[in-house]
Amino acid sequence: MIRQSIGLYRAQGIVLRSMRLGEADRIVTVYTSSHGRVRGVAKGARRTRSRFGARLDAFTHADVLLYKGRSDLDVITQAEILGRPRRLREDYASFCAASAMADAVDRTTPERERNVRLFMLLRSGLEALEAGAADPALLAYALLAKLASTNGLHPTLGACVECGSPARVGFSYARGGAVCTECLDRADPKASIETLDEWTGLLTGEWDELRRRRMVNGDRRDLGGLVVNFVQWHTESRLRAFGLLPVRS
Ligand SMILES: [Zn+2]
Hints:
Blueprint: E1 7-21, E2 25-32, E3 36-42, E4 61-68, E5 74-83, H1 87-90, H2 92-108, H3 116-131, H4 136-150, E6 170-172, E7 177-179, H5 193-204, H6 207-210, H7 217-235
The structure holds zinc ion (ZN).
């Protein structure tokens, strides 16, 4: 049996989720730059005079001091708030998109596995939302597409994944790419060339450009459905928060 190190560690991170525990405590999941995804209990976090305030809520950027004991759950002993996005708590569409981003990171990353690129990706995605997005839901899909690609799940979009033909009519989740008429299986969903090219646009687009982009509701739904199902298929996770994104924006 591997003996895990026990003791105090400090980490900077973004709160993915914050759940009530009992009368006064919270269980907080944080994606940190140095230790990946960690979960800790913040004791007394919900008491009025707690040193945490009630402030360790979702999307908060904080510097936390954690104690790792023998249980799965660390103890958050201190937290210094570095930033609390205002728009993400006040604007419904931005809140839903931020929740989807946090959910994607929460459900597709292993615990305690450092990945600085992923941390930077989440931070930039949330910052783009906070700066104001023409189409917040589109940014959530962009984050999911980029996250998958960062984790090695990189779809073939510009040509048929099977034969290389540029004439694409669908997408195969199993084969991880676009398919032409000849290579399309019955189980593969149809996908237009425009939708597949928009997916490429999510992968290559800079956040500052993406947050100015807007898609027609039906087009965004088609694109979002493909990206979400592709990631779910390969990670065997259920990305529930994406189902709660507003259909219209
Ligand atoms: Zn083909």
